Amino acid sequence: MDWFDGELGGGRDHDVPDTGGSWNWVTVVILGVVVLLAVGFFAVVGWLRDLVF
């Protein structure tokens, strides 16, 4: 159900395209790569710390 549906006395301007609000697959891939890089970085730092100390 749409909160801006005509039945509720509101109404949306359907002539305007929906801009935003959904996740783009490029954004998901970039965030995944960033998370993997962060996990890998902390794994390597932990491994190096174990070697040194």
A few lines on this structure:
The chain has about 55 residues and is mainly α. Helix content is about 55%, strand content about 0%.
Describe the structure.
This protein has 1 helix and no strands. With 53 residues, the protein is mainly alpha-helical. The protein has a domain of 30 residues. It starts with 24 loop residues before the first helix and ends with a helix. The mean pLDDT is 78.
Keyword list:
53 residues; mainly alpha; 1 helix; 53% helix; 0% strand
How do the strands and helices of this protein lay out in sequence?
Elements: H1 25-52
**Average pLDDT number:** 78
Cα-based radius of gyration, to the nearest Å: 23 Å
How far apart the termini lie comes to 59 Å
Order of helices and strands: H
Number of helices: 1
Largest sheet: none
